[in-house]
Amino acid sequence: MATFWVLHGPNLNLLGQREPDIYGRETLADINHSLKTQAEAAGHRLECFQSNAEHELVEKVQQAPIAGVDAILINPAAFTHTSVALRDAFAATGLPFVEAHLSNPYRREPFRRHSYFSDLALAVICGFGADSYRYGLARLMRELPVTAADTP
User: Where do the annotations place substrate binding (predicted)?
Assistant: First the structure.
């Protein structure tokens, strides 16, 4: 059994009402519920956290190894293009993570085409709406080695 954290960056608390033509109609609660169901069905634990504050996300990443987290799925949202501090937290912990985005940043404004995380991430999944999260979690679940305690 693995433990995963899903971290959501700024403004994702507005999903379902914020620019649904770009981000879709699923709410953050809908996405979190779907991810928890997906993880539990595979015998894993999953916790979700959203913040509009960069320092809170940095602290969560720093706490993850101490909390026994095996991997992180993150949508850094606007911090994708601005947060060296959050990038440094991932580099410092060395935890495997997948970067997910609801929209395809390469079809949007030029400033959205640069990510401070992509070169550290196991994978970057974008443009699939809420499925980006589900595909990202599936990738993390495949990445983690099965331990002797996990085998029947």
Answer: 75, 81, 88, 102-103, 112
